[in-house]
């Protein structure tokens, strides 16, 4: 892999960070921003996400059934193109260039990829240089595949040179070439451009830094289930994409999930006092669960411990719930983990009357009161 861009200091000082922000202009939402306070050469585990330029589906094709059990022949998976296979091989070969890195896993998707890297020893370069070298290796493999799929001149019996096939003729190619051929139309230069090819990857990358080993199984499950989630998104996009401007009474909500739950014949606001004992809370849980089993949609911000227990019990049982949240949503927001599957199955709706924020905030007493009143209004 080639080292193709200059790397600055791994960790910037507070003064450098302040100077950078001073000239950076307005801060825009981005999933590709580095952590200024983190040393990207140190021993740590990372989940890396890379997108194809223009989100072109050049790595493979999604097949399977979104609701097929794990291990079955219909379990969702990606059938890779020749380019997808080459990129996957390049990722698994990162250790050959940087022996300090253990490649944990990779999940190829049609138009992007996820991988987990474990930096076991101090790197001689910033992690970004490793990713740039990987991109350069993929670019080289991409060019080789395109060249292999091009018609090659052959010499006829009279010594003249003729092409294997004219541009308008069909050619017989191997199964590996067939998977690569559709890429040609996506990689040739656009009219009026001087570049030989479009970039394979979009600029930059997203990284998540492992903060606790408890997160690793969740990462691995996330990667493994990515094809299944994509199939679910295609099956019910209206339940898995954020929406905005939902006017209910005096409030305007953003959210994700099944908005049809708002039309249920019976909606029940969950209110459980903090003063109740564990035994009393258990009785409240059963009371609300019985109503949910009879068709009621439970609605709550789930603030008190008792409310949390009620909503968790209903969620675990696959019963429909509407949750009011303090933090809003952005166009890039998506449900995670259990919430994703509940939204995909139509049993969850998450709503917020406030704008999204990145920092953690504690609920105020006024907000708690507002959210509980909203739950009552949603049940009218």
Overview in brief:
The chain has 380 residues and is an alpha+beta fold.
List the helices and strands and how they pair.
Elements: H1 14-22, E1 44-51, E2 60-63, E3 77-80, H2 82-92, H3 94-97, E4 101-108, E5 112-119, H4 127-149, E6 153-155, E7 161-163, H5 175-180, H6 184-187, E8 206-209, H7 215-224, H8 226-235, H9 237-240, E9 243-248, E10 251-257, E11 267-269, H10 278-293, E12 297-300, H11 305-316, E13 321-324, H12 337-344, E14 348-352, H13 365-378
Parallel strand pairs: 11-12, 12-13, 13-14
Antiparallel strand pairs: 1-5, 1-8, 2-3, 4-5, 6-7, 9-10, 10-14
Key structural traits:
disordered N terminus; elongated; 13 helices; 380 residues; six-stranded mixed sheet; four-stranded antiparallel sheet; alpha+beta; 14 strands
Characterization of the model:
By secondary structure, the protein is of the alpha+beta class. Helix content is 34%, strand content 19%. It is built from 13 helices and 14 strands. The strands form four sheets. Strands 9-10-14-13-12-11 form a six-stranded mixed beta sheet, sandwiched between helices. The protein has a four-stranded antiparallel beta sheet with strand order 4-5-1-8, sandwiched between helices. Strands 2-3 form a two-stranded antiparallel ribbon. β13, α12 and β14 form a beta-alpha-beta unit. α2 packs antiparallel against α4 and α10 packs parallel to α11. The longest helix is centred in the middle third of the chain and has 23 residues. The N terminus is likely disordered.
